[in-house]
Amino acid sequence: MTAVDAVSLAVREGELFSLLGPSGCGKTTLLRLVAGLEWPTSGQVWIGGRDVTRTPAHRRPVNLVFQHYALFPHLTVADNVAFGLRYLGPPRPRRSAAAARVAAALELVRLRGLDRRYPQELSGGERQRVALARALALEPQVLLLDEPLAALDQELRQAMQLEIKRLQRAVGITFLLVTHDQQEALALSDRVAVMSEGRIEQVGTPLEIFERPETAFVATFTGAANLWEAEVLGIAGHGRLRLRLADGLEVEMPAAGGAARAGDTVRLAVRPEKLTLRPPASPPGAVPPGAALAALPVTVEERIYQGTRTVWLVRDAAGGRRVVHRSNAGSPGGDLPEPDPQPGNPALLCWDPRHGVVLRR
Hints:
This protein is 22% helix and 29% strand. It is an alpha+beta fold. The protein has 2 domains: 202 residues, P-loop containing nucleotide triphosphate hydrolases (Rossmann fold, 3-Layer(aba) Sandwich); 141 residues, CATH 2.40.50.140. A 6-stranded mixed beta sheet has the order 4-5-6-1-7-8, with helices on both faces. Strand 15 and strand 16 form a beta hairpin. Helix 3 packs across helix 4. It is elongated and about 80 Å long.
């Protein structure tokens, strides 16, 4: 069985970098390789300009925060935070210096005054902060976080995301985070590496990953579930491609996915929130260059109310199923009506061609 395969990755000093992907994609194995809990059969691990490939875990300038905290129930908060300091190599901090480190770490995670409590007397979020404080007290070069918020409920998880971001900025060290939660990676990270089956599909800022996915996997994993097969009709200039979808609709799209020639088949992705549904009209045919919208006849199959948004499932003439999201914040006004189409009704599926992405083959 292959665990991770030919991964080459550089994390910048002082950034919060996330490894994002589904279970079994290799992200935790990669984190363990950095931590020294696994050794690679080939390749190297460098930290701070130093090769640590064969350096034991306890001698690497890193610390790992586990998903389930791993706190000692019989020790107080202060003793849990101080635990690792007693095992530091020489020069080991004096007792007063160690106490100062513990106090500073607890101050950083906003747990001052709770140092004499035991883990069972704390909330889930407070226990997570103790685990962070214990790691930070050792002053690592790199802090490794293995899905640290997975055990928290949604509201507490969102609060802790803000805390981790604030903490990373306060201490200024490199954070390497493993998560399978797309929203968590986007909210926390300076950059994200999306992984699939032991390989890195794309590295970029949250904006680049979300708005400009490079592969079908990245597009679907981050929620852009609408994919079309299209034929390249030609190059329209300014890095744009003229495409024809299966039902004959022609659009111009940015050619961000790489080189393509007339006659090639490519995949086109449009995020659900970039799509709108309009009342049915006569088939629009080809969309001329410069037109505001691409419009595709569809039939509404399902309407799902989700509180902050409404989701429609629609099917086009070629049999493809599409997903449309609309915020329930209210109609934006202007010249684009926001109808409320019902299941069984025809509609036009519309989008601005600039919001589409041609994926890398």
